[in-house]
């Protein structure tokens, strides 16, 4: 098939999936939208700004851990690995790992935001000429094919930083971890960042910054729906809300309608009551023990943990239990690359 036709087909099927998810989410009660759609070009830029905010302690805490312990983390991953990064974004934290992994077979950043991914992959290939960089534009919650590297990898290791796993419901997180177990197989590992449970004030401040960047990030989702799906959300008629639900251990982020209104999207009309909220994101916080239990059920055993002195954030290294791949901790098989 002609490349431009293939690209167009892919774009149009992505648009249909987006439309289907938006309509389905706005028709459920309470209304919700999948947070994976935050990350268009503008959303990715806004997220990069969030990561630099004073209140958003997560990125600083994780970067400090990477800065201090990357050589130890690299030693856990081991030589000749294919390092697969989930939700790579700007790959800022990865640079610490790559600096300490001279024997990497290949680095595979996986991200849903194609433009951002290509740009980051080009920059990394320039800065690390000894490492083969093989970007994959994919939704890592679905099966995707790993590319074939020039150098043979002895094993795969997934790097999943940023506490993005917290954006999944615990049942979905378990499913994703099982996919990782299955993709890596025996000898494989997972290096993952998780945000730890802590006082409500610290957590809520991180999602309600004074500059309003998180509010803009949240509202940008409606702007994207308007632009890509021809909807007519009036952004002035919605506001951002984020609350920590300590019982469920998660931040809940919403867009709240300022008044009763009707919005059109994809030829459908959606009614909003005054004060009605669309849930746009959950961000779950864990203790190390809680997360290790979820991972254990997915066939992963905790090998090492690194936390800051205030225990705000943790980077955890898990190994695939040899028995997991045989025992059915694995739910589905991703296709190996044939190209
Ligand atoms: C990507 N993810 C881990 C962020 C979080 O903290 O849950 C997304 C985010 N939402 C608002 N601020 C940051």
Q: Would you spell out the secondary-structure blueprint of this structure?
A:
Blueprint: H1 3-27, H2 41-50, H3 57-77, E1 81-86, H4 92-99, E2 106-111, H5 114-127, E3 136-137, E4 155-160, H6 170-184, E5 189-195, H7 200-206, H8 213-229, E6 238-245, E7 250-257, E8 261-265, E9 268-272, E10 277-284, H9 288-297, E11 300-307, E12 313-320, H10 322-327
Parallel strand pairs: 1-2, 1-4, 2-3, 4-5
Antiparallel strand pairs: 5-12, 6-7, 7-10, 8-9, 11-12
Bound molecules: N,N-dimethyl-L-histidine (AVI).
Give me some keywords for this one.
single chain, 339 residues, alpha/beta, seven-stranded mixed sheet, three-stranded antiparallel sheet, globular, disordered C terminus, binds N,N-dimethyl-L-histidine
Please characterize this protein's 3D structure.
With 339 residues, the protein is α/β, with parallel strands linked by helices. The chain is 39% helix and 23% strand. It has a seven-stranded mixed sheet with strand order 3-2-1-4-5-12-11, with helices on both faces. Strands 6-7-10 form a three-stranded antiparallel sheet. Strands 8-9 form a two-stranded antiparallel ribbon. The longest helix is centred in the first third of the chain and has 25 residues, at 3-27. The chain is globular, with a radius of gyration of 20 Å. It starts with a helix and ends in a 12-residue tail after the last helix. Bound molecules: N,N-dimethyl-L-histidine (AVI). N,N-dimethyl-L-histidine is lined by residues 50, 58, 162-164, 166-167, 207, 214, 281, 283.
